[in-house]
Every structure is written in structure tokens, then in C-alpha cells.
Amino acid sequence: MSTIYEMKHVKNLTNFETLISLVSSYGKAYQPKNQALRLENLQAKAITAHQAIEQLNALLPSYSNAMMLREVAFEPLAKLRSRFFELLKTTAEDHVPSEQDLSLQTYYDNMLESLAQQVKLLASVPAKGTGQVDLQAETLRTLYNDLHVKNETAVNQIILLNEAKMTCNEVMYHKETGLVSIALLTKEYIQSLYSEKNSNYQKVSILEFIHVNP
Q1: Which domain holds residue 115?
Q2: pTM value surpassing 0.85
Q3: Rounded CA separation 171/175 (Å)
Q4: Helix (H) or strand (E) holding 84
Q5: Of residues 190 and 104, which shows the higher confidence score?
Q6: 211 falls within a domain
Q7: Domain check: are 91 and 142 in the same one?
Q8: Residues 79 and 108 reside in one and the same domain
């Protein structure tokens, strides 16, 4: 699943590779004093950027899948919660807390905590039992365990993706050593070698490099 954010990474890298190709054609005319602008270092930067973007893209499918599985798994909880309280009201009216006491939150961790409290209530409230299998304590425990795993998987995927984004941002947009900063310095150096009417100057001028705010 690509976003405008990830697409700008690719656009910057594509233009950077075009820039490298132009630098390669200059031969001995291209002799920057700044070591970071030397051809071999530009090529190394491109390789590092490729790896960072590929790592980010490789994580996106598993991230999206984990988010989808968690969303689908948690979706029935609201209706189940309402049925749970209706059940308690009919089986143990004097022992039923208000729903507000169980902190209604839509966040997944709080939803899990709420479900865990429901399981505890079923174990502690004297009730006559229920024929509704999906509201029995053992069924809710199984549901809780499944949701807990899906939530943990989603959280882990979020962490991995965020780490990959941080790495990619460092490679692409560090203010001194990032690909975009190096590209802009390279453009400046090349433009200092040629007049504005020179084709080498013009080919470099049209290459855009954009800093992306995460």
C-alpha cells in the first residue's frame, strides 16, 4: 500500500539516480572537493537509499494485514459488550456495575481490558448461567486470547514499520548527510561549472529534490 509519502521517497531516489548518471558523463570535469559529492559516494548513497525504501515497502503488506485482522476481530466487541450487560442484568441484578465503571474506550488496549473485566465479572457474579455460548466465560477467555495475539501482532508491526520509516527518513532527509541534501549540493556544484545556457546546467536544473516531513 503506497502513500504519497512513500512515493516521494521513490521520486527523490529516481531523480538522484538521474543525477548520478549525469555526473558519470562529466568525466574529469567533475572534481568536487566535498568528498560526499564524489561519484562513488553518490552511488553508495543511492544503494543505501534503495535498501531503506525496499525495507519499508517489504513491511507494508504485513503491517496492512495485521491492521486489517485486528480491526475485523475487534469489530464485534461493541455488540457483544451490550449483550453481556443485558445478560448480567437478567441473571444478577444486584451485582452488575454500570458500563461507565468499565471505562468505555475505543482504543484496542482498553477494549481488551474491558473484555478481561467481563470475564472476571462472569466468574465473580452469582448467576444462573446462560445458554448463549458466546457469552460464557470460557468462550470469552478464548476470544480474549485471540484478540490479545492479534493486538500484539499489530503493535509489533507498527513498531517495525516506524523503525523502518525512521531509518528511511535518516537516509533520505538528514539535513547534512541525507540523499536530498547531498543531491542539492551536487546540483549547486554542477551549476557552478557551467553557464545557464549549457545543456549540462539545464539537465541538472530540472531535477527536483523535495524534503519530506514525516
Answers
A1: 75-154
A2: no
A3: 10
A4: helix 77-91
A5: 190
A6: no
A7: yes
A8: yes
